[in-house]
Amino acid sequence: MDPRFSVIIPSYNRAGTIGRAIEAAKHQSFPPYEIIIADDGSTDGTSNLISSYPSIVYLFQENKGVTSARNLGASVAKGKWLVFLDSDDTVKESWLMNFKNAIRGFPGCQVFQMGYELIFAGSGKNKVFLPSQSKYLPPLTGTFAIKKDLFFSLGGYDEALRFGENSELFFRLEKMNESIQKIETADLIYQESHDGGSKNLRNMNDSIRHTLVKHQDYLSPKVKRLYHQIAGVNYLRLGDYRQASQDLRKAFLLQPWKLDTLVRWGISKFPFLAKKIYPIKSSLNG
User: Fold this and answer.
1) What is residue 1's predicted lDDT score, i.e. its pLDDT?
2) Radius of gyration of the chain (CA)
3) Which of 34, 115, 146, 170 could form a disulfide with 186 if both were Cys (CB 3.0 to 4.6 A apart)?
4) Is the domain 5-191 a CATH 3.90.550.10 member?
């Protein structure tokens, strides 16, 4: 029997872009079993737009965050496989067909991950990222399909997270020794975003802290270094040089041969220099 895919698209005030995501999901060479829109409290007329798609399952909740919206969509899904897609991204026509073929080829596997094509903001240039069994590729929304029963056995998405929620989900999969089969194709069209205002940077750092504490006994020194370095650079952009120095110091001590981390730690000691290299983000941007 062919797999039944429930495509779940969370949205918050994305009336201007969600139509593209819906059309891409609808026009697949292997059609989805259903498309679910999980509206996370939009106030921009998203519901009016969705009403023109009578076959789509539409859910509405008060604003709780994208992870909550995805969990809401999953809770009503009727397909045996879940595929998530963000409302500002699109996919190629072969997206679900490639997942279907992989599932047929590896019937015992419950998670499949493919690559993506990144569209750079402003220039419109693109770059393709393909996964391999030996090299890590971040699991972006739209690049993986997961068996619904497995998703629920994991507890779904961690709703405390506003950043890195897919990576955190995959950490839990890896803890369970769940095999993740890679598909060497790039069917997600991922639009680069520069939503880097102070609010978003603080949300990102809060999520990093949560993940580091939650998985402190599991994460490798390499991953911990990367998280602390991201947090440190974010604090530089927020003008919190003391906290930036603390995170960058932790990052350096985890892998002291990484000179780029050492340089960033040094920059954090000189605010006048840090302000030039990492301009402070205004709250108006996020």
Assistant:
1) 82
2) 20
3) 115
4) yes
Q: Are strands 181-191 and 90-91 parallel, antiparallel or unpaired?
A: antiparallel
Name the average pLDDT for the chain.
Answer: 94
Tell the burial category of 279 from Cβ atoms under 10 Å away from its Cβ (0-12, 13-18, 19+). Answer: exposed
Residue 88: per-residue pLDDT: 92
- pTM, to two decimals: 0.93
What are the sequence ranges of the domains in the chain?
5-191, 198-285
- Domain 198-285 sits in CATH 1.10.10: no
E strand or H helix at 82, and its extent? strand 81-84
CB burial readout 7-45, b (16+ within 10 A) else e: bbbbbbbbbebbbbbbebbeebebebbbbbbbbbebeee
Distance (Å, whole) CA 149 – CA 81: 8
